[in-house]
């Protein structure tokens, strides 16, 4: 006890000091970001106060400017330029120059940058969420969950663990290289190109930017033409934080435009991160093949939500409705296929029907609404088409939500949350990505059947499995061919930013998030060096020195058996042979030596 007592005292003192140190707030600079031109105070300039009606069809996908409007009200927000190919290359060149300086910075400086951003985000949650809401139509609660919490969690993970995963990682050197030290180094790739979707305008900018900048890269982010207004404001936050630490001002760029702008970016950078549709992802791959750069694709999803017969129906029904409303045009992580065990099918449908009927949709900043507007113009027509196809094939609508006060010009931007039953896999609704607030519910009878149904899809992004037995839920989830899985929860994997995120099949490949996503922005370099330099150096054994000895191959045979043989006695015998041959003279080498003398 006399020996342990001082150690216990020291451990307690250390823990107390760590705790007291945590109570001291870090000195983090504050930044001011100009926001007067994005605040909706009712006093907008006349030219920005009219209702905007977007052109229909492909005509809205091209031009010299990108028009911006509020999908919930159709109020005009302004426009941003659609950058040309040459303008994109010029931006990338500036970022490349800045990155060469940034690559030499310390992790301490990079963490300061992250803390400045985190401080601003926490103090300006309302502003960030309102801007996201105005540009995409989502509610303030959805913006807080999907924009603020995920980004803060990402920053916190990088602050806590980012450096340790980018430091050299030592590996075993094996038997033949015992005298060597083996390690993996992680160097910046250079300039990362990110082409991101509209559903999370804040997080989709910050997510790749945080990873790229912390790993020593520069980044150019092409934001969606459907969320350019908010993206340009969020870019100001990044610029202000970079300026606060004296970083190169061109380290991060946000560019706007249409397909041509994205294509120009792909051909100019060292890696591409793409979030979007499978069709666009294939075009990204074709363009990236021209310069043979790595690509991370996070594409479509048709995530499954499985409910076994031993669950708390009331509890799971609430989660299910949250999961489907997250598909209301704002969240690619929403569930789109619901499989419920036939023993509780009627009870589950009754519960979700009651909840859905209480859901009200409307302009998210004009009142207390559960659901906002669809972001993309004409998307409601696609959703109606999916439902009509299902109805023609025998499906039935059992519940729909209601609308609040919606302006006449914005009616097409809203779609009522819908519960539809008697569905099957012959229907487009169960095969195509809907990206809308539709809950198609299908029965299943056994765990084997539901696994087969879940895997009957060209997509493979995520799944959520609910059961009163965690082992049962885990077993089902393990058999579903997808990239992320939540056991007795929904979308919880993305809030664990230590985990990689991505899918398989038509949902893409590669991962962002976690260690895998961080290192994916690095040049991964294998390095071997002498362990005891300069005392032990690599020397070519005499039998295989040029000109090789007559017994050179025999030497190699014995060496291989000495190193890797399964029988210890045979290995020892082979080692004796190796040592014996090392002491013998090489006749060919001796002959050449005498001739040269």
From TrEMBL:
Gene3D superfamilies: Aldehyde Dehydrogenase, Chain A, domain 1, Aldehyde Dehydrogenase, Chain A, domain 2. The keyword Repeat does not apply. InterPro entries: Ald_DH/histidinol_DH (IPR016161), Ald_DH_C (IPR016163), Ald_DH_CS_CYS (IPR016160), Ald_DH_CS_GLU (IPR029510), Ald_DH_N (IPR016162), Aldehyde_DH_dom (IPR015590). This is Aldehyde dehydrogenase 22A1 isoform X1. The gene is LOC107462909. The active site is at 298. SUPFAM superfamilies: ALDH-like. PANTHER family: ALDEHYDE DEHYDROGENASE-RELATED. The lineage of its organism: Eukaryota, Viridiplantae, Streptophyta, Embryophyta, Tracheophyta. PROSITE patterns: ALDEHYDE_DEHYDR_CYS, ALDEHYDE_DEHYDR_GLU. Keywords: Oxidoreductase. Residues 60-527 form the Aldehyde dehydrogenase domain. Coiled coil: none annotated. It comes from Arachis duranensis (Wild peanut). Belongs to the aldehyde dehydrogenase family.
């Amino acid at each position: 006890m006399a020996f342990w007592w001082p150690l216990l005292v020291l451990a307690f003192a250390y823990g107390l000091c760590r705790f007291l140190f945590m109570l001291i707030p870090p000195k983090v600079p504050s930044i001011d970001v100009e926001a007067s031109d994005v605040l909706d105070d009712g006093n907008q300039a006349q030219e920005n106060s009219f209702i905007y009606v977007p052109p229909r069809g492909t005509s809205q996908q091209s031009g010299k400017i990108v028009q911006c409007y509020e999908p919930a009200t159709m109020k005009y927000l302004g426009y941003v330029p659609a950058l040309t190919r040459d303008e994109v290359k010029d931006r990338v060149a500036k970022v490349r120059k800045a990155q060469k300086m940034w690559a030499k910075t310390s992790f301490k400086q990079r963490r300061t940058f992250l803390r400045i951003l985190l401080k601003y985000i926490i103090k300006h949650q309302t502003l960030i969420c309102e801007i996201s809401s105005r540009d995409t139509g989502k509610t303030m609660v959805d913006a807080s969950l999907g924009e603020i919490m995920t980004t803060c969690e990402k920053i916190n993970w990088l602050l806590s663990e980012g450096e340790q995963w980018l430091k050299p990682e030592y590996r075993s050197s094996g038997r033949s290289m015992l005298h060597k030290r083996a390690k993996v180094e992680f160097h910046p790739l250079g300039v990362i190109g990110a082409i991101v979707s509209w559903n999370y305008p804040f997080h989709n900018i910050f997510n790749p930017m945080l990873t790229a900048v912390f790993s020593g890269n520069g980044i150019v982010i092409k934001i969606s033409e459907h969320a350019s207004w908010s993206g340009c404001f969020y870019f100001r936050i990044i610029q202000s934080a970079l300026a606060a630490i004296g970083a190169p001002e061109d380290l991060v760029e946000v560019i706007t435009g249409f397909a041509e702008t994205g294509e120009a970016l792909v051909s100019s950078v060292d890696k591409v991160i793409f979030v979007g549709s499978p069709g666009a992802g294939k075009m990204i791959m074709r363009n990236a093949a021209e310069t043979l750069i790595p690509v991370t694709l996070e594409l479509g999803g048709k995530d499954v939500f499985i409910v076994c017969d031993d669950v708390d129906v009331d509890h799971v029904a609430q989660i299910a409705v949250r999961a489907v409303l997250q598909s209301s045009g704002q969240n690619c992580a929403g569930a789109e296929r619901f499989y419920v065990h036939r023993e509780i099918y009627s009870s589950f449908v009754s519960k979700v029907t009651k909840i859905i009927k209480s859901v009200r949709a409307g302009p998210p900043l004009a009142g207390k609404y559960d659901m906002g507007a669809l972001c993309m113009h004409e998307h409601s027509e696609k959703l109606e088409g999916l439902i009509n196809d299902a109805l023609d094939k025998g499906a039935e609508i059992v519940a729909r939500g209601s609308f609040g006060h919606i302006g006449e010009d914005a009616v097409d931007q809203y779609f009522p949350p819908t519960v539809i039953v008697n569905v099957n896999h012959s229907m487009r609704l169960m095969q195509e990505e809907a990206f809308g607030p539709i809950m198609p519910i299908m029965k299943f009878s056994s765990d084997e059947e539901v696994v087969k149904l879940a895997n009957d899809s060209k997509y493979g992004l995520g799944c959520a499995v609910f059961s009163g037995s965690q082992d049962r839920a885990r077993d089902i989830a393990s058999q579903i061919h997808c990239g992320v899985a939540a056991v007795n929860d929904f979308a919880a994997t993305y809030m664990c930013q230590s985990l990689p995120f991505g899918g398989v099949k038509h949902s893409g490949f590669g991962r962002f998030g976690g260690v895998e996503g961080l290192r994916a922005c690095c040049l991964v370099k294998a390095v071997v060096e002498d362990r005891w330099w300069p005392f032990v150096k690599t020397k070519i054994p005499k039998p295989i020195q040029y000109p090789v000895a007559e017994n050179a191959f025999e030497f190699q045979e014995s060496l291989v058996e000495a190193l890797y043989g399964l029988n210890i006695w045979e290995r020892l015998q082979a080692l004796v042979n190796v040592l014996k041959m090392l002491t013998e003279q090489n006749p060919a080498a001796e002959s050449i030596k005498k001739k040269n003398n």
